[in-house]
């Protein structure tokens, strides 16, 4: 009973109301972003099925990419896209997450990055099996060829999810630093994810719509991970105050004094 009373007292205090209100606004914004992203991916899938709208750009964009290929860019983008594949990306992200864990003495980076990666893989692989869209013809792709279903691009979804979470972690850690530094982190994360999507189209492994839908799904999933973290932060920060209020309440309780 004392714990519940202390918790209620904190929630109804001016500071508690401000914190709860801010958390509600943040979660509402995240939920709205996630919903819009999922809706956008659904609209793209509908365009693919009906072969209209943005899907009409799939073939022209691929033809443009084929016309722009030369040995230098192809080799560079092959290396880059392989680094974001199912083998190297988990290794790179795990190494980065472990480094941040060691550097900050906090397991949060590892947990959030793992959630982003695992969730992105599960969502993309499940959606691929359900939609079962064919990739661009192998004659239009650069070896080695890929044969799994095309929609959405798993590389792109993982890149957007992981880049968003890493940017979120770094910006939080550097919150008291100049805003230009935080903006630079966000722009670098966006550039990495967009370049990954570009490489998938340029090399002929995916259609443009596969990449656009994957980007939206990656943003939606990373928003869910961030929302979970914000709720966890709220709960973890309230526990010390609850314990303090509980101890204060017990010290002023005559029955507690008599029992002692």
How would you portray this structure in words?
- The chain has helices spanning 2-12, 14-50, 58-68, 71-83, 88-104, 108-131, 154-173, 179-202, 208-251, 254-259.
- The relative contact order is 0.15.
- The chain has 260 residues and is mainly alpha-helical.
- The chain is 80% helix and 0% strand.
Order of helices and strands: HHHHHHHHHH
**How many distinct helices?**
10
Uncertain runs are 1-12, 244-260
**Which geometry do the CA atoms define?**
globular
Quick one: biggest sheet? none
SS elements, strand count: 0
What keywords describe this structure?
260 residues; disordered C terminus; disordered N terminus; mainly alpha; 0% strand
Topology, please?
Layout: H1 2-12, H2 14-50, H3 58-68, H4 71-83, H5 88-104, H6 108-131, H7 154-173, H8 179-202, H9 208-251, H10 254-259
Helix pairs in contact: 1-9, 2-9, 4-8, 5-6, 6-7, 6-9, 7-8, 7-9, 8-9
């Amino acid at each position: 009973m004392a714990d519940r009373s202390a918790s209620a007292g904190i929630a109804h205090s001016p500071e508690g109301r401000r914190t709860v209100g801010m958390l509600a606004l943040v979660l509402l914004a995240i939920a709205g972003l996630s919903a819009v992203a999922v809706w956008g991916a659904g609209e793209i899938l509908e365009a693919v099925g009906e072969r209209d709208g943005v899907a009409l750009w799939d073939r022209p964009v691929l033809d443009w990419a084929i016309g722009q290929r030369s040995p230098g860019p192809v080799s560079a983008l092959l290396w880059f896209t392989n680094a974001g594949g199912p083998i190297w990306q988990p290794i790179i992200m795990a190494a980065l997450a472990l480094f941040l864990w060691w550097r900050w003495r906090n397991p949060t980076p590892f947990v959030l990055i793992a959630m982003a990666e695992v969730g992105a893989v599960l969502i993309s692989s499940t959606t691929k099996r359900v939609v079962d869209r064919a990739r661009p013809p192998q004659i239009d792709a650069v070896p080695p060829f890929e044969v799994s279903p095309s929609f959405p691009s798993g590389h792109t979804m993982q890149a957007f999810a992981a880049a968003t979470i890493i940017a979120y972690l770094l910006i939080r850690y550097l919150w008291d630093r100049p805003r230009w530094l935080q903006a630079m982190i966000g722009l670098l994360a966006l550039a990495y994810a967009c370049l990954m999507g570009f490489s998938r189209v340029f090399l002929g492994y995916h259609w443009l719509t596969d990449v656009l839908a994957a980007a939206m799904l990656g943003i939606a999933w990373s928003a869910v991970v961030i929302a979970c973290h914000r709720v966890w932060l709220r709960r973890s920060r309230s526990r010390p105050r609850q314990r303090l209020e509980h101890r204060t309440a017990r010290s002023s309780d005559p029955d507690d004094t008599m029992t002692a």
